Amino acid sequence: MKLIKYKYSGKGFAPYLSGLKSNSYEKEFLIRFYRDMLRIRLIEEEIERRYHEDEMKSPIHLVIGQEASSVGSCGALRPEDQVYCGHRTHGIYLAKGGNLKAMMSELYCRTTGCAGSRGGSMHLFDKSVGMAGSSAIVAGAIPIATGAALKAQLTGESWIVAAFLGDAAVEEGAFWEAVNFAVLKRLPILYFCENNFFSVCSPIEVRQPENAEIYKKAESFGLKSVKVDGTNVLEVYEASRNMVEYARSGKGPAFIESVAYRWRGHGGAGDDSHTGYRDPAEVEHWQQFDPVKSYYDFLEQKNLLDGETRLAISKEIEAEVQEAFDFAINSPNPIEDDLYTHVYSD
Amino acid sequence: MKLIKYKYSGKGFAPYLSGLKSNSYEKEFLIRFYRDMLRIRLIEEEIERRYHEDEMKSPIHLVIGQEASSVGSCGALRPEDQVYCGHRTHGIYLAKGGNLKAMMSELYCRTTGCAGSRGGSMHLFDKSVGMAGSSAIVAGAIPIATGAALKAQLTGESWIVAAFLGDAAVEEGAFWEAVNFAVLKRLPILYFCENNFFSVCSPIEVRQPENAEIYKKAESFGLKSVKVDGTNVLEVYEASRNMVEYARSGKGPAFIESVAYRWRGHGGAGDDSHTGYRDPAEVEHWQQFDPVKSYYDFLEQKNLLDGETRLAISKEIEAEVQEAFDFAINSPNPIEDDLYTHVYSD
Amino acid sequence: MPWAAALIASKETSIPSAEEGRILSYVEALNEALALALEIDPHVLVLGQGVNDPKGMFGVTTGLSAKYGNARVFDTPLSEEGMMGISTGAAMNGLRPVYLHNRPDFLLLAFNQLVTHASKIHFMDNGKTKVPMVVWSAIGRGWGSGAQHSQAIQGLLLGVPGLKIVMPSTPYDAKGLMLSAIADNNPVVIFDHRWCMRQNGVVPEGMYQVPLGRGVYRRNGRDLTLVGTSHTLEMAINAVDSLEGEGITADVIDLRTIKPLDGEIIIESLKRTGKILVVDTGWEMGGVCAEIGCLVAEKAFYDLKAPIKRIGLPDVPSPAGFTLEQFYYPNPEKIANVIREMVCKQ
Amino acid sequence: MPWAAALIASKETSIPSAEEGRILSYVEALNEALALALEIDPHVLVLGQGVNDPKGMFGVTTGLSAKYGNARVFDTPLSEEGMMGISTGAAMNGLRPVYLHNRPDFLLLAFNQLVTHASKIHFMDNGKTKVPMVVWSAIGRGWGSGAQHSQAIQGLLLGVPGLKIVMPSTPYDAKGLMLSAIADNNPVVIFDHRWCMRQNGVVPEGMYQVPLGRGVYRRNGRDLTLVGTSHTLEMAINAVDSLEGEGITADVIDLRTIKPLDGEIIIESLKRTGKILVVDTGWEMGGVCAEIGCLVAEKAFYDLKAPIKRIGLPDVPSPAGFTLEQFYYPNPEKIANVIREMVCKQ
Ligand SMILES: Cc1ncc(C[n+]2csc(CCOP(=O)(O)OP(=O)(O)O)c2C)c(N)n1
Ligand SMILES: Cc1ncc(C[n+]2csc(CCOP(=O)(O)OP(=O)(O)O)c2C)c(N)n1
Ligand SMILES: [Mg+2]
Ligand SMILES: [Mg+2]
C-alpha cells in the first residue's frame, strides 16, 4: 500500500504569522479559540486514558489533530444555527457549545446522557445547542441537514445549517444528490468537509482519483467552494465566516474542504500506525502542525497569551472534565421499561 | 412552469456543412448512418401506429428526434463492445445491430422476444450484439456497465463498454459513485448522456441548477468530457470515436453530453405537448433540427445521396418492419411453466 | 394509447360503504386529502417527481401547486435517497413533507434514509425529535411493468421499528388514512395500488381521519376469515360474494394498515370462523402473509381449526409479458378456489 | 481498548462437531475459504472497504491482497450502491466478486442494486446472464453499536426472489458455505455474526462445500423443535443443554441458509416433537421467525400440538447503551425459560 508521504506539508502555520491582521480581532475572541481547542484536546485525552476501563461501552472516534476545524467552523456559527455530522462527533458538539456532562453521560450510556443512553458517542443530539443530528452512516446526515436548510428557507428562519463530513463521505452518491438540491434551491447551508486523507485505514488514493480535488468537484456542482488549512483555526474561521455569511444572506450553499490529519486511530484510543496502514513518521510529521500548540505559539508571539494564563486555562478545563466524568459515572442507568419508550411519537 | 424556450437553437446543422472533410469518409459509410437513423425512425413510427391496438402491452419510450445520438455513438463501437442503457432502449438496440424481430417479439411479449417476454420494451437484452443490459430504474445500469468495464480491464478484453443515460440520471448519486470508481481504476468505458432537457414532464431547470453544466461536472470528476450537438450524427460519431479510442487505449473513462430533443411524449405514442408541460411550438422549433432530414439534406448537397436511393432504402426498411411485426404477432406466447424457470441459475 | 393510463386500473369499480358523502374516485379522494392538508397546515409540503406536472401523479396532485405554490408543492430531482433524507430533515424541523413516488421500486433506492434514519431518529435521540413525514407510492401491476416496476415491497419494510405502513382499499380510506398519516408524528409509508385508482366510493367532505392500526370488517360471514389490504380487498370481496350461492360466507377484514398490525380484529374473527386465509399484493415468502400466519399460530393457535393459507405472489420476480402476468397474480377466481377448498375440506 | 475488537465476540467458544479436521477459528475458516477460492479460480475477486488494510475485516481477508494482488483483492470507495452494481456487472460478465461489508446496515444503501438488479437479471433476460456474486456482511451486536450499526436485516431480504441468503453458525459451515456461495451462479448474501468470529471448531483442509438450502440437526431431542441460524445456535444449544438436568430434550436445527429455506427438515422434526420455537438475530415482526412460523402453520398444522413461539428482537430499534442492550437481545437463559414454559405447559 502506497502511503501519503508528508502530503500537504507546504502550508503549515505560516499564514498565521504573516497574514493575520491581529488587531482586527479582540484578544478575548482569540483566546476563546485557544481555550475551545484545548478543551477538546484535554477531554479526548481523558476519554482515551479511561477507555481501557471498558466502562464507556461506546465506539469513539477522536478528533485530536483536527480541533481547529471544529472550533474555527463552529466559531463562525450562531448558537441557533444547526450542525449535523457523522460518527466523529465530539469536537463539533463541544465547539458548538455542547454540554460536557451530557456528552460524558452519553458515552457512559447513562440516562443523563444527551440521548439518554440510546445514542452513544456516534449519536450525540442536543437541540439546545443546535446539535441537531449525527449519523453513524457515512454521509447519512448530509441529506437530513439539507432538509433542515429547506425548512429554514421556507419559513424564513434566522438560523442556517452546517453539515460536517469526512473525505470519504463525498464518495457516497447521496452527498451529490443533496448538494444538487441545495444549489438548485439556494439553501442556506455550509458543507464542511474535513479531509484527513483516511477512511478508517484506507488512504484517499485508493478511493478517489488524484486528478479530482474534492472542493473543485463541489464547485462544479455550483457550490461556492474553497480549500483551507484545517490546522489553522483562524484560516478555518475566516473561510467559515465568509461562507456562513454567503449562505445566510440567501445566496446559496457553500463548501469548505478543510485539510488536517487525524492523529489517533480511526476508532478507539491511541494511535494505530504500528498496524502498518500508515507510517508512524507520517503521524509525527503532521504533529508539527499541532493546531493547539501552533496557535498557542502564535498567540504567545503576539503577546496575547502566556504560560501562566495557559496553565490557568488548562487547570480550569481539567476540573470541568473531572466533574463531568464524576457526574457521568454517578448517573443512573436506564431500566428495562426505557427500552420500549419513544419507538413511536404521539 | 417556466418552459425551456428554444434552448440550444444556436447550433443546428451548420457544423455538417462547414466542418466536414467529406472525403475523409467512404460514401457507404456515410449512407449507413442515414439508413440506420431512418430505420429507427420508421420502426418507431410503426410501433406508434399500432400501439393503440393494445397488443404490445409494454411501456414504450420512443427515441424519435434523438436518432443521431444512438447511431453516431454506436457507430463508433465494435460489434463486441457492450452497451447498457435505461428505459429508452430501441434506438440503442437497433443501432448496436439488434435483431428487429427479436425486439418486436419482445414488445409483443412473445417467447421469441430477445428476453423471452420477461423484459418488454424497457428490458431489451441481447448478448449476441452486445446489448448487455437495460434497466427500468434510472441510472440503474450505470454501475453495472462500470462493473462490465472492470471485467474487461482485469481480463484484458478487446471490448469496451458504453453506458447510455439521460439528463436525469446524473441526479442519481449512483452515477457519481460509478464514475468515481471508473476514473479511479481508469476503466475502459464511455458514459454517453443524452440531454433532452426532460425527465418525464419535468424540465431540467426544476431538477438541476443552471450554473452546473453536466459535462463540466463530469470533467471535474476526472472524466475526459465533451458536449456535442446530438442531432448531428457526424459530430456525435466523431466525438464518440475519439472517446472510444481514449477508453480503449487504457487512458480511462470518458463522457459525452449529447444534446437533442425528444419529439414524442416521455412514454407511449404521440406527442403530449398539449398537456401543457412544454410549448408545442418548442417541439416544432426542434423539429427543424431533424437528425434524419438534416443529414439527408447534407448528403444530397454533397451528391452522396438522392431521392431515388432514399426511396429504395425506405422501402427496404418498410418491408423489414412488416416482416418483423408479422413474425412477432405470429410467435407463440409463453406457457404457465415458463413463469417458474430461470428464477435461479444452476 | 398513453400507457401511464393503461397502467392504472383498467375499469371503474366500487366497494360499497356504509359511510355518507359524495361519490369520488380514489384519485379524487387522495387529491382532496392533500389539498385539505395543505390548506389547514402551512407546514405541509407535497413533493415528488412530477407532482406539479400536468399528469400530476395520476391526478393525485393535480392543481395543488397552482393553488399552494411551487415552494410547498414541488418537483424533485431524480435523487430518491437524497430527497428521502431531505424530507426527513425537513420533518425533524417541523415541516410535514408528503413525498410521492410513482412506484414502490424507487423506495429501494432510499432504504438507508427510510429504514436507518427516518424510522429511528425519534428513538435514538430519546424522543426529542419527531419525524412527521409521509412517503407515498403507487404499486403497479401488469401491463408490462415487469420485474423492476411492479414490486410490492411492503413485506420488506414490515420489520422496521418506528415505521408505520398504510395500505388503503377504498376512496374513503384513501383520504382518511392520508389525513391521519399526515397528522401522525412518525414516518408513515402509504402504498396505494394503481388498480384502486379508478374505484369510486363515498367520500365525506372536509376533514376526517381513519385511525392507523385498526382494521375493519368488509363482510361478515361464518366459514372463514379472509384478511387483506389495498387492491386485494376488491378481489377478496368478489371472491366471497361469488361463493354466496354455494352457501359459503366469510369474514372479510380490511387491515388498512399493516404496521401497526391489528392482531385483535384478526383473532376476534378467527375465534368464530376457525380458519384463515391471508391475501397480499406482495410476495408470500417473508411478507405480510407470513407475519399474519405466524401471529395467528402463535396467539390464536387453539382457535385454529385448519391450516392457515396465504395467497400472494410466488417466489418469482414479476414477468413483463401479459401471458405470464395472468399466471403470476392472484385474482378473484383463484381466491374463490382456495376458499372453497378450505371450507369444504373441513 | 480497540473497540473494533470489542465489537466482535467477547469470548472464545466452540460448537462440537462430528466432522474431522483441524481446529480453526471462525475467522480463520473464512479466510481460508477466500484464499482457496482466489487460488483455484482466477475470476474470483474480493472487494470491500478495508479488505486489504491491516485489520483485514476482523482478519477475514488478512494476507489475501499480498498473495493475490491488489487487482483481485481491493479496497473500495465508500459507495455501497455503486459498488454493488459494479460487482453485479462484473459478475454478469463472468467474474465472481465477493463483496464484503463491515455491517449489514450498509447493505441498505445498496438495496436497489441488490434487490432490483442483481437478483432479477437472470430471470429478466430469460436465463442468459448469470450473476455469480457473494455479498458478505458481519452483523454487530451490543457494545454501543446502536440503531444504525447492528441491524440484522435478513428478514428484509427474505422475500426477494432470485436471492439466496446464508447464515452460518460454525467455522466448518462458515468455510463450506462461503465456498458454496462463491461456486453458486446466483447472488448470495452471507450474514456472518461478529459474535461467532472467535468460535473455534473443526475445519477440514482444502475444498469442500456445504450445500445451500439444507439444514442440519445440532441436537436430537423429544420435547421441542428449536430452529435457528448463525449466532442463535450457540445460544440455543446452551439453552437446551442447560435443560438436560430437568429432563427436557429438544431437536436443535441449524438452517444454515434461510433462502432457500429447508422446510423439510423443520417439518420432519416437528412431526416428532409437535412444538416449535424459532430463534433469530433479527426482528420478530415480518422476519425469519414469521416465515417459519407461518410455514409450519400452513404445511404441518396437524402435527402442531401447541402455539408456535418466536424469539427475536422486539419491534424496537437497537439501543446503544449497555444496560438496555441486555434487555433487548436474546440470551440462553431467556431461551431456556421459553422452552421450559412450552414443554411444561402441555
Ligand atoms: C455507509 C457507510 N459505510 C461504511 C461505514 C463504516 N465507516 C465508519 S466511519 C468510516 C470512515 C469514514 O471516513 P471519513 O468520511 O473520511 O471520516 P473520518 O473517519 O476520516 O473522520 C467508515 C468507512 C459507515 N459508517 N457507513
Ligand atoms: C430511480 C427511478 N426514479 C424514477 C423513475 C421514473 N422514470 C422513468 S423514466 C424517467 C425519466 C428519466 O429522464 P432521463 O434520464 O432524462 O431520460 P429520458 O427519459 O429523457 O430519456 C423517470 C423519472 C425511474 N424509472 N427510476
Ligand atoms: Mg477521513
Ligand atoms: Mg431526459
Task: Give a description of the structure.
The complex is a heterotetramer, with 2 copies of chain A (346 residues) and 2 copies of chain C (346 residues). Chain A is built from 12 helices and 8 strands. Chain A is α/β, with parallel strands linked by helices. Chain A has one domain (27-329): Rossmann fold. In chain A, strand 3 (161-166), helix 7 (173-185) and strand 4 (189-195) form a beta-alpha-beta unit. Chain A is globular and about 50 Å long. Chain C has 346 residues and is α/β, with parallel strands linked by helices. In chain C, helix 4 (80-92) runs parallel beside helix 5 (111-118) and helix 9 crosses helix 13. Helix content of chain C is 36%, strand content 18%. Chain C has a 7-stranded mixed sheet, sandwiched between helices. A 5-stranded mixed sheet of chain C has the order 9-11-10-13-14, sandwiched between helices. A two-stranded antiparallel ribbon of chain C has the order 1-8. The interface between C and D is large, with 58 and 57 residues. The structure holds thiamine diphosphate (TPP) (2 copies) and magnesium ion (2 copies).
Keywords summarizing the entry:
heterotetramer; A: 346 residues; alpha/beta; Rossmann fold; two-stranded antiparallel ribbon; 12 helices; 8 strands; C: 346 residues; 2 domains; 7-stranded mixed beta sheet; 5-stranded mixed beta sheet; 13 helices; 36% helix; globular; binds thiamine diphosphate; binds magnesium ion
